[in-house]
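Milestone M4 deliverable, item 7.
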Amino acid sequence: MGFLDITNAISADLESGLNRAEIFKKYVRASPAEATKFAYCIASIPTAALRKKYLKLNGLLLVLLVSYAALTVLAELPIDLTKPTVFILLRTLVPIIFAYFVFHFHGGVYRLITLWCLFDLVEDLLLTGAPTLTAALKLLSLFFIIFLSWFISRKVFPNLKIFGPKQDDGGRYLL
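Output delivered:
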C-alpha cells in the first residue's frame, strides 16, 4: 500500500470516528513492519479543528509559494538558452510541488519547505548583487514562506520530525 492509499484510508477512519491510536493499532496488526509508515501518515493528517483554525494561514502560504515560483522565473528573465536552465526549472517546479501538498494540508511537507527555502534564502543573499525589485520581492516572500511553513508545522503537526514521526521516551510513536 502506498502513502496515498494509506492516507486516504486513515482519513476515512478518522471521519468514521476512530481515534488515532485505534487506527494505528488496526494497521500495525495487519502489517507490523510498516509501523513507521502508518505513524507518519497518521501524524501528517491534521485534526479538523486545527485544519479549520489554520486554513487562512495555509492559504496564504499556498499563494506565497506560487508567487515565489513566478518571481523566480521573472528574476531570471531574459533566460539565456545557451546556458544550463535546469536549475531555473528546479527552483520553479519545487515550490509548485510544495504548493500542491500545502493545498492538501499534508503535514510532511512543511518542514521540507522551511529547509528548502532557508537554503534558497542563503543562496539568494550570497549571490544577489545589486538587488532589483523582483529580487527584493523574492527575498520578502522567502522570509514569509519560511516563517509560515515553520509556524504551521509546529502548531498543526507537532508529532512530525523532518523525515518521520516523533517517538516518546518509550519508543512509541506520537500520533
